[in-house]
Every structure is written in C-alpha cells, then in structure tokens.
C-alpha cells in the first residue's frame, strides 16, 4: 500500500512526539511492505511566527492532497493570555476542521493497569473501561453566528444543527457499535434545548436502522456524573460539539494520563490524527514528553487505511513497553526513559 | 426572628426529605426562639396531576410572598420518555427561576471521610476538598431564542449574556471568596464563544474591585478534567448556566453521594433552597431516602437569614450522625436508619 501523509508538527512537544510516530510508521512500512510519503506543513504558533497566520493556505493544500494528516499540537504561552486576539494558534484547529470537513472526532478511552498509581480513581473502578466517544466537530455553537453589541456589553452565540449533520455522525457511531458491545448512548440536553430535541429525534430514527444496537439517551449533566461514577456502562458515546468537548476531556481522566490517548477526526475526504494532549510547553525540547498518544494516533491512521494487523502490532508494542516499565517521565518521574527511546523501542518491537 | 417559608414538596422523595428539614427547622426555632411560618404549595408532576400545570400561579404567589422557599424535587418517570412534551415537571424549575429572578445557583461541594467507601476516588484524593460553585441560572442558552424549522430538520438555540447579568453574580462570588480562600476561578470557553469573552472581560473588571481575591480563568473542557484530577486547587468557581449545570453535577461525585449535597438559588427577592438530588422514584414512600441534602439546604436558608449559629448547629448535628453511623440505606445498605429517624436525630441534637 502507498499513502501520502501530511505531517503538521505544530508547537511545544508536537514535533518530538510526531517524530516518534513517523519512526514507528517507518518500521511498519518496512515490516509489512508499505510506502508512506510524508510532507511537512506549518501550523499553529510556529506558522504564525513564520507566515503571520496559524493555518497557511499551503498547509490546507498539502492536507487536501494527502490521504491522512498526522497532527502534533498547537498553542504557545505567548498567545494564551488574550483569547480575543485576532491571530491565535487554535484557529488552525477550526480552520482545518472546516477546510477538511472533519465532522466527527473519535476518541477511544481505555485504561491501563500500569497507570493506576497516577489515577485519582480506585483501581477496581477502572478495570474494563472501554469507551469510544463520537463528538460532532463542525457544527453547533462553535460555528454558529456570533455577535457582540457595539458598546461591548452584550454578546451572543448561536447553536445550530441540521438533520444531515446529525445523521452522518450517528451512522458512524452505530456502525462502530455493531462491532463492539452494541450500545450507543446519546448525550443531550433535550429537556432544555431545541437542538438537543432534534439530535434525539434524528438519533431515534437512525437507531431504528440498527436493530442489533441498543440506543440510550442521557442528559449531559447526568452523563458528567455517570462517566466517572459508572464508566463501564458505556460502549459508544455520541454527542454534539460543545458537550463532546467537555465530556471527552473529562473521560480522559479515567486513563490516568492525557499523554496516552489518541484521537481521529474524520470527514468525507482526508482524516486527521492527533494525540489529545496539548503542547506541554514546559517539556518542549527536552525529550521527556510521552509519545504514546501520538503513536496510538498513528495506529488509528493505519486502521483508517484498512491496515488492522499493522495497527494491532503497534498496540501490542505499546502494551509491551508498559509491561516492561519503559515509560516517560510523566508516568514514572524516578525511573524514566526518553521520548525518543520509547519511539525506538516501539519501532523495534513492531 | 419571624420568617415565612414556602414549602414545595414536589415529587418522589421530595415530600419525605422536606419533612425532615421542617422537623429540624422547628427544633432550631424552639431552641433559639424563632418563629417560622410554613405554607405548602404544589409543584412538579404532583401539580400537573392536580392542576394541569407544573407551576400553578398560586404557587408562584405563595413563593413571592415568602422570605424563602424550601424545595424538594420534581419529576416523574411517566413524563421522562418525552423531553419535547408540552407539559413537564421540570418546567416548574425554569418557571420558578424566572418568576423569582433566581439568577445565582450556589452549590457547596465538600467531602466527608465517612463516605469514602462510596466514592470512586482514592481517599487521599478527597481530603480537604472545599469548593463553592456559582452557576448563573436565568440567562444563557437556557433562556435564549429557540427555533425549529417547519419541516423539523433544523433547530437552533441562542446563548445571550449581558454585562449586568454577569456583574451581579460575579459580585456574589467575589464577596464569598473574601471570607474563604480568596480565589475565584471563572470557567469559560473564551477561545470559541463571544459570550465567554464577555464573561471574561466583565469578570476581569469586577476582579479589579476585589484586590484581595485572586481571579483565575480556565477553559471549561480543562475544568472538567481539573475538578476531578486536582479539586483542591479550587475555592470559588464561577460560570455560566450550561457549563454550571454540567460541572456542578460532575463535582458532586467528589462527595460520594448525591444525597448529601444542598444548594441555594438566590435573586433579588426571595431565595430557594433545594437538595441537588432528584426524585429517586424507586425510594419514594419507603422512608429510606437520604434527607441530609435537604437538611443542609435548610441550613443554607438559615445562613441566608443571617442565622449563622443556627446553621452551624445543624451542620454539627449532621457531622455527629455521620460519626455515629446514623446513616440512610444509600450510605450503608446493611446497617441503616430510616429517613425519619435521621430527621429526629438531627432535630434532637440541635
Ligand atoms: C482549542 C479548542 C478550541 C479545541 C476545541 O474546543 O475544539 C480543543 O479544546 C479541542 O477539543 O480540540
Ligand atoms: C432539570 C433541568 C432542566 C435542570 C437544569 O438543567 O437546570 C437541572 O439539571 C438542574 O441543574 O437544576
């Protein structure tokens, strides 16, 4: 198989962790006889510094011309203090989501027994947690009309959804559930919001087309409780953009480390793969960041290419490193390995 | 002191738990020489069954004519299945919030060492957690314009905020923080929403008037992580309606039991006090529900009346029952006391 991969390193620890994923992808290519072509492009604060914009049009073109995008992280402390500034690194995320039509963000949340010392939860609480969260990514209050009055004393944001926007991501969620524990839980606030009532109605319609999958409906405030109080009840979670932003981050705490979790954002054309962690500025350039979130994102990319065996080889390699305590400083501050060493070990094992 | 208290029992376990609070209030009245006049009014499914509406105008009148409202819970399984039905018990909540102008919902979140066996968290994680959450309650996406297209395939909800709406609740939060650990954390999504940018700007302005209080700003997705990963960092949390709905329920998991937590909703006139738990239909009428959330709500009411010593007497009584394992079935299913017994014990101790 031959594939074109756009590489968007971004800021902070982005370049370091992405470099490990490329090492691992190269090991997969060699082992299984694939050819991956990489093309780097600027994004985030790095792109602002070099071109004046967080998402240069050249970057969009490179992504559109690729089969998949491997994304690091964006953001820089020097832009953090003013969330209303005209040019900001995170604008690249919105821009990419829109330009590539990435309507579904998919986040698997699993737990590793080796990480339980890091977790605020009792060990017994975490065994067997295995959730996949589908968050709608190009609609809702993120992209609706926004206004601020001339005197600056009144502001508004509109949340809008249409049936087709809900249908396409609902189909993805129900299809995935068919190959898992056959349950989809929609999170909404249909006792308050019209958009939530639309979500519930459309998901009820779609659910009828998947009689082998159980559909459940839960208010988002209750879900914020249930995700931590009784996480094993969930299989696939489906929700709109803003609720998904909050609940998927919350659920990541179950894992014990933000550094270990991958994500995929898919649309109609190319797809984007990125760790859920941020730029972690304090660790940048020190070869101490955890590359597992990025490497697992590369594994999701291979699965997206249809390379299931290859993806599993990466997961096995990661399980092996964890079992042998080959971990980065965030997991074991006393006895740790470097970012690049983890990348080497996973590559060799593959 | 002489006060008029409207009693809105509502549905499910509402009447039982509220009855215990009244017992305790009567004990306080006797002990400290106050006079409390109670007036019952219909609300919720109970009101729908008897009058056809969840919030009869007579109920609003009784509340407006009272110094405070003691509220049980509303909701009934027979209305649960259809969140778009014309008449629903929860409408009483919105109606009361609007009619009484209850713009700030205040929820203290503390932990009890006796409850740690119920908590998904490690014991060490919970010691010393002491947070008060201020949730804006009469604005935002709850009360903005809502539309559904004629064909039912497009829906929208508008989130609107004005400077005065933010200022009045911000003042309450900063004032409370002055008597606590002197920190207010605003939760917003100011990297995405205009309304959040307005919140941040206004809170920065208000913060300048409280130089002894530290103001912090956190994105709500990160807050969903921090509240459970590092809850001790928070003192007073301030946020808008929808974020507050989600984050305050999430934070309640720290306590270990939804049955133990009170809330106050304040406005310009009368204020409303209610446990955060729901109607718990399975327990209704069995004298097994936990009345502590309601009794602590009564304590918040006394504080609101300026009766600090009396409120503290109730808290001491509750601590005493917990220390002696006088607890309801939700806390200890093997060795439990009845709802009414807990009410008696707290009253006697007071
Ligand atoms: C940076 C921010 C705008 C973004 C979002 O809210 O979508 C981030 O939190 C995420 O989840 O990717
Ligand atoms: C019942 C519901 C409409 C209500 C809300 O969202 O405000 C409830 O969740 C609450 O927090 O009081």
From TrEMBL, chains A, B:
It catalyses: (2R,3S)-3-isopropylmalate + NAD(+) = 4-methyl-2-oxopentanoate + CO2 + NADH. Pathway: Amino-acid biosynthesis; L-leucine biosynthesis; L-leucine from 3-methyl-2-oxobutanoate: step 3/4. GO terms for biological process: L-leucine biosynthetic process. The keyword Oxidoreductase applies. Substrate binds at residues 97, 107, 135, 221. It is found in: Cytoplasm. Its EC number is 1.1.1.85. Signal peptide: none annotated. PROSITE patterns: IDH_IMDH (PS00470). One of its GO terms (molecular function) is NAD binding. It comes from the Bacteria. Residues 4-346 form the Isopropylmalate dehydrogenase-like domain. Its cofactor is Mg(2+); Mn(2+). The keyword Amino-acid biosynthesis applies. Mg(2+) binds at residues 221, 245, 249. SMART domains: Iso_dh. Catalyzes the oxidation of 3-carboxy-2-hydroxy-4-methylpentanoate (3-isopropylmalate) to 3-carboxy-4-methyl-2-oxopentanoate. The product decarboxylates to 4-methyl-2 oxopentanoate. Homodimer. This is 3-isopropylmalate dehydrogenase.
